[in-house]
Amino acid sequence: MTDLSRLPCALIQPLLTHVVRRIAARHPSLFARLGPHQSTDFLIDPIELPFALHLRPDPEALIFRAVPRDAAPHPGALIRGKFMLLLELMDAEEDGDAAFFSRDLEVSGDTEAVVRLRNALDDVDGSIAEETADMFGAPGRVILARLRRNYPTQENGAVAP
Amino acid sequence: MSLAELICPAGTPAALRTAVDAGADAVYCGFQDATNARNFPGLNFTPDELAEAVIYAHAKGTKVLLALNTYPPAGKVDLWRQAADTGARLGIDAFIVADMGVADYIAQTHPQVRLHLSVQAAASSPEAIRYYCENFGVKRVVLPRILTIPEIKQVRKEIPCEIETFIFGNHGLMVEGRCSLTNYLTGQSTNMDGVCSPASDVEYKRDADGTMSSQLAGFTIDCFGPDEKAGYPTICKGRYTAPHRSDAYYAFEEPVSLNLSRLLPELIDAGVHAFKIEGRQRSKSYVRGVVSAFRRAVDDIRAGRSADMADLVALTEGQKQTQGAFETKKWR
Fold first, then answer.
1. pLDDT higher than threshold 80 for residue A71
2. Same domain, B241 and B260
3. Which of A149, B24, B234, B314 is least enclosed by beta carbons within 10 angstroms?
4. Angle B16-A144-A81 (CA atoms, 0-180°, nearest 5)?
C-alpha cells in the first residue's frame, strides 16, 4: 500500500524535476496564461505529506522541488489541501471554487497568482497526473491507481464533503 | 414549446471544448481584455484561440457567442469596436452586448451577426427591451434575475425577441450593469474594466483557530468560522456590522447560487428560449458537471419525461442554492 506520508524529499526530488520539465515542454501555452506570475514562488502544501512543494513556473528556469515545511521559502502564494484534492485540481477533475467554498482548499498570499495558475492548468487538455504516470510506464500507472484508491476525493471516491 | 437552448460558459479553450462535448447548444466566451465582464487574470481567449474554438464548436453544431458586455469608458470605444470586428471576422454566431454605442456599432458594421442583449443592460421591462430591438435589431434579451416566472411570461407576450434566462450559477444580481461597489474600494469597475473584486486586490487570511477572513483592497468583507462554508470575496456577499445589529450580517445578499433545475418546465412554458449557465471563471470540472446535468434535464423535458437532475449543491457558492426571484419576490 502506498503511504504518501512516508515519502522522503530526497527520493522524489529527481522525479519532480524530470516531470515538471516534461510537462512544461508538452504544454508551453501554460506559461502565457501565467503572465507576470511566471516568476512567483508558489508553495503547494499537501497536508498529509511530510514536505511541501515549491514551484516557480519560470520557463527559463523552472523550479519544482520538495521542501521541508520549516525550510520552505517565503511564498508569493500558498495553496494548501489534501494531496489528492490538489492532484485533482491540477487535472481539473475537481473545481477549485467549490473546494474553496467547502474550505477543503486554502489559499493565501497573492490571489491573482493563484487564479492565474488555476486558469493555466485548467486550459490543459487531458490529465497531467496520467501524463506523469505514463512517463514511468506501467509502474507509474500502478502507483497513480493506488494513490487514487488510497486517497479518494469526492469525485473519484468516497469522501463526503 | 420553446427550443430551450443550453447556453454554456467557456473561460478557456479547453473549457469550451468541454462544454461542447458535454452537450452545449451554444457557448459564450470573451477576449482577454476589458470588453467582457469576466476579465480575470489568466482567463479568456486570444483571437487565435477563438478562431480555433469557433471551428471546433461549429464542427459539432454548437454556436459561439462573444461577450462584449461591458461599457466603454468615454473616448475608449476602439477596443470594443476592434473586438467586434475580430469576432465578426472569425465567424461567431452572436454578440452579447450591454452598451448602446457598442450595439449601434455592430448593428451598423456587422448587421449579419445576431445581437443579444446582455443581462448587464438590465433591461427588464417590455418598453426597454423593445427599444433595443427596434433601434439595434436585438434578437434576444438575457433577462435580469429579478423577475418571477409569471412576469417573464407577460414580458414574452410584449416583446418581439427571444428570452434567455440564467438557470444556474453565481447569483450576484444587485442592479445588474450598474453596480459600483467594487469600484468604490478598488478603483476598478465591474462594468467598464470587466472585473468584480479583482484578484490582485483580494487577500485571504487564516488565523490559528481556522477562521478565515477575506479582504478586498485591505477591507475585511467577511470572516468565516473554521467549519463555515465560504463564498466569493465580493462586497455584495460580505457580512458587516451595524449599530442596529448585534452580529455581523449580510447587508446586501448571501453567498448563494441560483439553481432553477426544478423550474425548467415552467420556464419553457413561459416562453423562455434559452437557458444560461453562469461560470466562465469556473473550471472544466464545473462546466462538465453542470452542462451534462442540464443537458440531460432539458432532453428529458423535451421528450416528455420528468427530469432527474444531478445534485449540484457541491458546486454552488457557500454550498447553498436558491430559486431567487424566479420563485418569489420575497426570496431574500
1. yes
2. no
3. A149
4. 70
Q: What is the DSSP letter of B168?
A: E
Rounded mean pLDDT of A143-147? Answer: 80
pLDDT mean over A85-92:
90
Query: Tell me, what CATH number does B311's domain have?
Result: 3.20.20.70
Residues of B in contact with A109 (CB under 8 A): 203
A93, B180 contact by CB (below 8 A)? no
B118 falls within a domain:
yes
Residues B163 and B188 in one domain: no
A61: Cβ contacts below 8 Å, ≥ 6 apart: none
Q: For the domain that residue A18 is a member of, what is the CATH number?
A: 3.30.1050.10
- Per-residue confidence at A130, pLDDT binned at 50, 70, 90? confident
Q: Which stretches of chain B drop beneath a pLDDT of 50? A: none
**Cβ neighbours, 10 Å, residue B148:** 16
pTM for the predicted model, two decimal places: 0.92
Q: How many domains does chain B have?
A: 2
Three cell numbers at B205? 487570511
> Is the same domain home to B147 and B20?
yes
By residue range, what is the domain housing residue B239?
Answer: 184-250
Q: Are A109 and B215 in contact (CB under 8 A)?
A: no
In total, how many domains does chain A have?
1
Q: At what angle do helices B47-59 and B13-21 cross, to 10 degrees?
A: 10
Residue A113's domain comprises 4-125
Chain A residues lying within 8 Å of B314, measured CB to CB: 98, 102, 154, 161
ipTM of the complex: 0.92
The whole-angstrom separation of Cα B244 and Cα B247 is 9
Percentage of residues in chain A with pLDDT exceeding 90?
A: 48
Q: Which residue has the higher pLDDT, A71 or A152?
A: A71
- Look-up of cell digits 521542501: A67
Of A107, A115, A154, Cβ closest to residue B42: A115
Q: How far is B8 from chain A (nearest CA, A)?
A: 16
